[in-house]
Amino acid sequence: MDELTALPQNALLESRIEICRLLVALSKHNHSISADVGSHIFISHILHVDLRAEHLVLSFCANKELNNLVLESGPLHFTGGFLDAHIAFDLAAPTEVQFNDKPAIQYPLPAAVVLYHRRECPRANVPPEVSLRCIADEGGVMPFESRIIDISHDGFGAIQYEGDINIGPGTILKSCRIMLPGSGSVVADLELRYTLIAIRPDGSAAHRSGFRFLSKPEGLARLTGAFMQDLDKRA
């Protein structure tokens, strides 16, 4: 993403990859973010974003009591600015950590980020799980059911599948059939880049692998659209 130029003017980001890119840009340019905590305003900066661990780290503010309030608070609504855009996202479940030998606050990545160019930032309802059904390796040796859980506009993403299926980095999944929202499908070869253990909401284990498309599929824009929504069109 080149300073957000690849995104719609008003966008709801549900792709973990795109969310991380935006948050990394905020961190790189040292832009502040803020949240209302009772009658106080907590102003912070993003120190670190980790896609694989799915968390971000915020700086403490100068007020120790306010930092403690944030650590004890429920979900907080953060806002900030980048270029000419407003940015808004919710963070929950904070924990105190040490980052570069200083106290800081760690949060799980937000489920969505609103990027908005109008005067007010709307809140958007985000589906609890955004994913696409995929018949992985349909053109290979052992097809299996999976879910595409993330796709970025430049062809990287993540796939989730049963924990008893063991495939390592560098594996090529041939002719994977990804079901498009509504109707139709996209067929593409995927190269796995890494594999992690993921715990589902019901407590069962699954594998989650990062991937890249070996060649850009014709339906990439529609696939990406499942994870990045244009707020004007959605409204």
Q: How helix-rich are the residues, as a percent range? A: 10-25%
- Quote the CATH topology of the largest domain: Pnp Oxidase, Chain A
The strand line-up of the biggest sheet is 7-8-4-3-2-5-6-9-1-16
DSSP, total strands: 16
How much strand content do the residues show?
Answer: over 45%
Order of SSEs, N→C? EHEEEHEEEEEEEEEEEHEH
- What's the CATH superfamily of the largest domain, by name? Electron Transport, Fmn-binding Protein, Chain A
The major pleated sheet works out as: 10 strands, antiparallel
Overall outline: globular
Question: Which regions have little confidence, pLDDT < 50, spanning 5+ residues?
Answer: none
Give the tally of structural domains: 2
Q: Which CATH architecture of the largest domain would you pick?
A: Roll
Structural class: mainly beta
By CATH reckoning, the class of the largest domain would read Mainly Beta
Mean of all residue-level pLDDT scores = 87
Q: What's the tally of helices?
A: 4
> How many whole angstroms does the radius of gyration measure?
19 Å
What's the end-to-end separation, in Å?
25 Å
Write the layout of secondary structure elements.
Blueprint: E1 11-13, H1 16-28, E2 32-37, E3 40-50, E4 55-59, H2 64-72, E5 76-82, E6 85-91, E7 95-99, E8 102-108, E9 113-116, E10 132-136, E11 144-151, E12 156-162, E13 172-179, E14 185-199, E15 205-213, H3 220-225, E16 228-230, H4 231-234
Antiparallel strand pairs: 1-9, 1-16, 2-3, 2-5, 3-4, 4-8, 5-6, 6-9, 7-8, 10-11, 10-13, 11-12, 12-15, 13-14, 14-15
